[in-house]
Specification:
The protein contains 13 helices and 4 strands. The chain has 2 domains: about 110 residues, no CATH class; about 180 residues, Hypothetical protein af1432 (Orthogonal Bundle). A two-stranded antiparallel sheet has the order 1-4. Strands 2-3 form a two-stranded antiparallel ribbon. With about 300 residues, the chain is mainly α. The chain is elongated, with a radius of gyration of 25 Å. The longest helix is centred in the N-terminal third of the chain and has 26 residues. Bound molecules: fe (ii) ion (2 copies). One fe (ii) ion (FE2) binds next to loops. One fe (ii) ion (FE2) binds next to helix 5.
């Protein structure tokens, strides 16, 4: 029993044909092996299941370079087999479908889109400090998401978006980000284009489209004084508000070419002081109290 999916459940002809012949073959086999032990039948079914893997690999191979409107075709598969005569066939189908969705999520998470993963790899190879920063931002975003009680899907979206948030830096001169000392006004303007560039890179891929908006807004501020649009409060997507906090916390607590890292206490004082101006006050409080297990207000 096989299920395949691009954006919804669509049976793939080859898998469906296989399923029909599979059922026929199994019926014949079961009749012919009436004297066989149950474990022998089960072994044969297991061997057949492993054949699905080969079929799936073959179909994936055939579609690996097929594009529709410039977007690479992506297909996810799931399979299961009816091993006992009293097993409900609908439950087997449901299990095949569940497996397909599991694969789909895993494949999305692993940044299937070749172009985007090449860009992020190039950026990280050029600048390993960026890679470590993105990894830490991704982790902090996940901690905040979990502390906020977000769903598993939303937390895994935060994981990916944390990793990709600065992808637009690929088009910005590297020396700006490694410069000892503060940036000039002109350099600041140039480097502040990276959310916009990141948006354009991600919106070129259908599967990354929803992430593009979050990346565009990751330097917006709660009070509206951020960039590129100057969005304010709830008008900033929640995911972007989470990235903004994780990003600033990591930047403050890491060594930079022009200053030493802040201690945790100093960084927390900054977050408290800028809660309601730079940061969403609710997210700031959840981060301090639930993620870092620190009191919101320090008793002097
Ligand atoms: Fe950024
Ligand atoms: Fe960043």
């Amino acid at each position: 029993m096989a299920a395949a999916d691009t954006t919804q459940v669509i049976p793939v002809t080859e898998a469906a044909v296989y399923e029909t012949s599979e059922q026929t073959t199994n019926k014949t086999k079961i009749t012919n092996t009436r004297d066989s032990t149950l474990s022998e039948i089960s072994r044969q079914v297991d061997a057949k299941i492993s054949n699905f893997r080969e079929i799936v690999d073959r179909i994936k191979d055939q579609y690996s370079d097929v594009y529709v409107n410039g977007i690479r075709v992506s297909i996810s598969f799931g399979w299961d087999a009816k091993k006992e005569t009293d097993q409900d066939i609908l439950k087997v189908l449901k299990s095949a479908e569940d497996n397909m969705y599991k694969h789909k999520i895993i494949e999305n998470e692993s940044l299937r889109d070749n172009t985007i993963s090449t860009i992020i790899r190039t950026l990280h190879e050029k600048n390993p400090r960026e890679e470590q920063h993105s990894q830490r931002v991704s982790e902090i975003c996940q901690f905040i998401g979990k502390a906020m009680g977000l769903s598993e899907i939303e937390v895994s979206r935060l994981k990916v978006v944390g990793l990709l948030h600065d992808i637009g830096k690929i088009a910005i001169e590297e020396r700006f980000f490694n410069k000892p000392g503060k940036l000039t006004e002109q350099e600041k303007n140039e480097s502040s284009r990276h959310p916009d560039i990141g948006y354009r890179i991600l919106s070129s891929s259908f599967s990354m489209l929803d992430l593009a908006d979050y990346i565009l807004a990751h330097h917006e501020r709660w009070d509206g004084a951020g960039y590129p649009k100057g969005l304010k409060g709830d008008a900033i997507p929640m995911v972007s508000r989470i990235i903004a906090l994780a990003d600033t916390y990591d930047a403050m607590t890491s060594e930079r070419s022009y200053r030493n890292a802040l201690s945790e206490a100093e960084a927390l004082a900054e977050i408290r002081n800028n809660s309601g101006s730079q940061f969403d006050p609710e997210i700031a409080r959840i981060f301090i109290e639930k993620v870092l297990n620190k009191p919101w207000r320090v008793v002097e």
